[in-house]
Amino acid sequence: MHYMAEDVRQLIERMWPESGISRYGRVFHDTSEFMDIGHGDVMALGGLHYLVIRDESERRFGMEDPKYWVKRCHVLETGEKRIVKLVFYETFNATVGRHQFPCYRSPIKEARILDLVREDPRFMHGFSLEDSQGNNVRVLEYVQGRRLDLQVEAMEVDHEIYFRERFPAILAGYIDACEAILFLHEHGEKHGDIRRDHLYVERGTGRYRWIDFDYAFDLRENPFGWDLFGLGNILAFLVGKGEHTPLSIAEQGLTEHIRVPLDQDDFGIIFGNRLFNLKKLFPYIPERLNRVVMHFAQGANVFYETVDELLTDLRPCLAELGAIPEQAQGGEA
């Protein structure tokens, strides 16, 4: 790295004069020390110059979680906005029931998936390249749209109207998203970090698109099991139009809706305070659909081993609700 050359400063002023950049920082050819790369710096990668606007962050559990290895950038030569993910290795343990297993970040794995889904509209798109030190850097296009969970939460209708009028199209889109994960599994890949904030609704098309593929996991009991439980958590959220815990049920005055007492078997395996037996709260939910959600509850006797098994049970639920799959492609974004 070195202080920014005058010609690069001129490039910023010529290509993006309205940038408002007041700090002309340094040029980085080596991105190893990602904490040193910030606003006003430039990363020289693959023959282009990526001006860093800021670090990305994600909101989890009500707090902003900075991601210092993920940079929001402006490509000076093209004017395009891009997200640049630098190499960051992280390992932690996850738990499903009695099983604990390692999860870790793998830039190479994410690069493989980006190549695999390059033409697939169900996923974010991008490419990988190496910096001067051989670090695998991923350059990502923005998914123009909104997180599915935020879109669902913003629907200002009660649950019954939501379930009868909005949910069928959402379920159709969710099934399409599950088929996308099945595609990865059939090619020996895992998403690795299936959460509801990693599924977006694309503006204009209404298509559901997955983002962030850099987590991997080793679950010997079922190589794709962590992905499946992630899909189950999202499904419960969509069916319930949000998360329902004993506290939230009481705060929303929904306790009187529960005619059969709740017990521990009614709650999720991963998050033990989230209600999965949603039919106890909303009795108009069809039994067939509720049984699918209950495969991810503590009271489950049988768990899904493949996404195909989940889809086999879920597609008849869509037919029972009378949904037309194409409706999912025209939703709000």
From TrEMBL:
Species of the source: Desulfocurvibacter africanus subsp. africanus str. Walvis Bay
Domain Protein kinase: 50-333
GO molecular-function terms, A-Z: ATP binding; protein kinase activity
Annotated InterPro entries: Kinase-like_dom_sf (IPR011009), Prot_kinase_dom (IPR000719)
Coiled coil: none
Name of protein: Protein kinase domain-containing protein
